[in-house]
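Write out the bound-state structure for alpha-D-galactopyranose.
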Amino acid sequence: MAALAVPFRSSASAVFDSAAKVFRLDGDGVTYAFGVDSAGQLQSLHWGGALQADDVLPAAPKAADYSGFDRANSVTPLEYVGFGGGLAIEPSLKVSYPNGVRDLVLKYASHTVSADGIVVRMKDVSTEVYVDLRYAMDKATGILARSAVVENKTRSWIRVDQMAAATLNLPFAEDYELQYLTGRWAAEWTLQKRPLEVGETVLESRMGMTGSQNNPWLAISREGLTDEEDGPVWFGALAWSGSWRITVDKDIVGHPRVTAGYNPFDFGYRLKPGETLETPVFYAGYSDKGMGGASRLMHRFQRSVILPNAPTPKLRPVLYNSWEATEFAVDEAGQIALAEKAATLGVERFVMDDGWFGKRNNDRAGLGDWVVNTEKFPKGLGPLISKVRGLGMEFGLWVEPEMVNADSDLYRAHPDWVINFKDRPRSEGRNQMVLNLARKDVRDYILKSLDLLLRENDIAFLKWDHNRSWSEPGWPEMAAEDQQKIYVDYTKNLYWIFAELRRRYPKLEIESCAGGGGRVDLGIMHLTDQIWPTDNTDPLDRLKMQDGFSHAYMPGVMMAWVTASPNWVNKRSTSLEYRFLSSMQGCLGVGDNLNHWVPEDFATAKRMIEAYKSIRQTVQRGDLYRLVSPQGGSERSVTLSVSEDKRQAALFTFLHSSSTFDATPIIQLRGLDPELRYGFREIAGKADTDTPATASGAYWMNHGIRVPLRGDFQAAGIVFEAV
Ligand code: GLA
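---
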């Protein structure tokens, strides 16, 4: 199985001070340091702004018990702590032995420091159980990658009951605030904030998938010191698409720490002698430029390290998707009619969504049978694809390979292939069951069906969906005590399939979708090119979700379609221009039924798509400034994307509703070059009449621009360009 860590192209310097026994990583703007104390434990020493190279960090102090109840290991900021020796806080690792012992006390054993980072080997005090702690830091962003590998060198099996990639300790302070993302289907990406008090906050998924209830991302800021543009922020994200958990706690003496890894709920992974278990990577960063600075670092890290084809991931084409137009009623003539219309708009990729395969006329049948439905496509997909290609577009297809309907040939042939407990009911979600990808035969079947589809058809893109969470997480073919391996092996096999498809079809692009934003994390992002963040396509609801999304993930993967008004979710009516401006904050798509459009709609869409292409590089690859947040009932929202060379900036401003004769607030831009002169052009809406035709970056940032908006659901888009 593939290693879970992504190598950095340029790692930060890693050094070991052998006198003080201090390890240190220095990236741009960030220093991370930890040391070996006299008891052989690893203590965190610094995670925050950069220190000077000649600053000497003092050795880790002797760890002391607080009392007979609270021993040293529970009140000391340790890098990775085993459940043992009376530990009272969240362990990084808990194991059990066949003789009933459940005690693990990890001590420093050895280390290697290389150009790629640091590996510290820890060993249990009494048994041959080893843990390698891996540290690497991306030089340009100072983002640290931490993971762990446990190795069983004893003569019998051990069971891993709980395992984190890392524990990270923040500097001791009392005014921390935690921010994280929660959601549900069609309402993902709500930003939450709460003070960090003594006790534990648990962010998690127990569902076998990333989930939208919580996303595996968090940021910790300091109350009163941190705002959008200024002040310290510690942030992290777990690169794992299965069940996961991140705990944030403050121990009884007030040390704040974050522990992230496999979800210990229902977990158990037996290792035979010689076997290892590797964790996913927890990426952790620091910015002193507020929440905006933290997310810009994350975005830069994603495009330069995480995404396929990093550091130069391809720009997202403008796509058309058939789902909201036709749902399951796809057929050759209907799709060709849509494709012809889409092509006139400047759409670059035509994607046929659900309904093209098996007996798929609704969501009760067909999943698992990845063969073309010949009633809808009598000559296969060939004629549609040739037509789409002839119109100058790429062709993309929806698939949901991990699922099966009871009413399918696959389920009739292999009822044992789904995740299930023996002789127990099999709960369905959206009338479907989850295939057990942890099984090799299932993994191979999925790869084979997709491979056939891709080999026989000119398909540039797959929208890979996953429309339910797990239930009855059993693996009956395995021994009872090994069935919980499903939580790890399923996701590793999923990653393997993605990697193998990409290897066989290097030009293939993939979108991660799970009924919307149910599978968004840095693990899946490494193997997919774009993300469907939510099924909710209402442009106002989207503004808030896009804002939440942007705290953790880059706009350059965030698909946003323009669909029908009134919107199916909430019956809200908005203008086509407003819908386009909302979607242009991410990767633009169109998902409306073009058969219902009038010539004026085509003209508007054509103009907006052309405008989008002129700013696409800036929106998808540039730096995002959230100038006015739509969160918390705000009537306005404003974002600015600034290109990497600072020569272009795209401003989007929205007014949700006017209630009185509002004045027009001034918008002060950020991130421009103060000395460059910029002119502006309007994509939609108008700047105030007395706005100068050109002015310096300093003028736009320090004086600003007024863009009058009046009425409900009003929006404008202005592009600034260096002259
Ligand atoms: C999910 C996706 C939608 C669409 C449908 C098809 O809900 O999020 O975009 O593809 O499945 O059934």
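---
The pocket of alpha-D-galactopyranose is lined by residues 323, 353-354, 398, 465, 467, 513, 515-516, 532, 535 (CB under 6 Å).
Residues 372 and 381 are 7 Å apart (CA to CA).
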